[in-house]
Specification:
Layout: E1 17-23, H1 27-32, E2 38-41, E3 49-55, H2 61-67, H3 72-76, E4 90-93, E5 100-103, E6 106-118, H4 119-122, H5 128-132, E7 141-156, E8 163-172, E9 179-183, H6 193-197, H7 204-211
Parallel strand pairs: 1-3
Antiparallel strand pairs: 1-8, 2-7, 3-6, 4-5, 6-7, 8-9
Length: 212
């Protein structure tokens, strides 16, 4: 069973308060960089639209070991081998060389929750990496995200269960006019990831998705 996609504008309206969904690390960072396309959960949601991906503030020993596992480490290291600037909360995970620095208690990206699928309906259609990054046991749900836009820098924010109201609102990029996001009370001009850091190449999983 696949729920039909909602009619969602390609670009969110300027000044729209975003909903958010909290993911544990390393899954939140995998989603932010486009390596993970589906978030698997026990229960479904009827909500659709633009949402922020939030990294939970706690990371268990099991989750730290998972970040260093084959597949996870390969996807994460190119994007998270340097500590975030400033006072962004993060966890440094010792690797062979260099370390992984995963933000926690932060918003990492924004994207569109387009539809949801029963896991048994899609688990034979997904890539091996995608299967590794989620729990596709029968009876669960896969939240299908598209148009994932990584934030220029992680933005601290509180944890919450399920889909919830975030502290972020959408903004136009001050340079290119594309999608950006900032704290709702922040009145300073903001720029998107590409205009802040230069060219950003999505993970191969996201690029393959865009071709189909």
């Amino acid at each position: 069973m696949t729920t039909p996609p909602a009619t969602i504008e390609t670009y969110p309206k300027n000044g729209m308060i975003l909903r958010a969904i909290s993911l544990s690390q390393p899954h939140a960072s995998l989603m932010a960089i486009g390596a993970k396309l589906y978030e698997t959960r026990k229960s479904n949601t009827e909500w659709r639209g633009w949402a922020a991906i939030h990294a939970a503030s706690q990371m268990s020993d099991e989750e730290r070991n998972l970040a260093l596992a084959p597949g996870f480490m390969d996807a994460l290291l190119p994007a998270y081998s340097l500590p975030p600037e400033g006072d962004i909360p993060h966890i440094a995970i010792p690797a062979l060389n260099p370390k992984l620095y995963l933000p926690v208690g932060c918003y990492l990206s924004i994207g569109v929750l387009e539809r949801t699928h029963r896991t048994e309906d899609i688990k034979r259609k997904i890539s091996l990496d995608e299967a590794l990054f989620g729990d596709y046991s029968n009876g669960r749900w896969a939240f299908d995200f598209a148009c994932m836009q990584r934030l220029p820098e992680p933005i601290p924010g509180p944890d919450a269960l399920n889909v919830h109201n975030s502290l972020l609102e959408t903004r136009e990029c001050a340079k290119c006019g594309g999608i950006a996001a900032a704290l709702a009370l922040d009145t300073e001009p903001v720029k998107c990831f590409v205009c802040t850091h230069g060219m950003y190449l999505p993970h191969k999983n996201a690029m393959d998705r865009w071709r189909t």
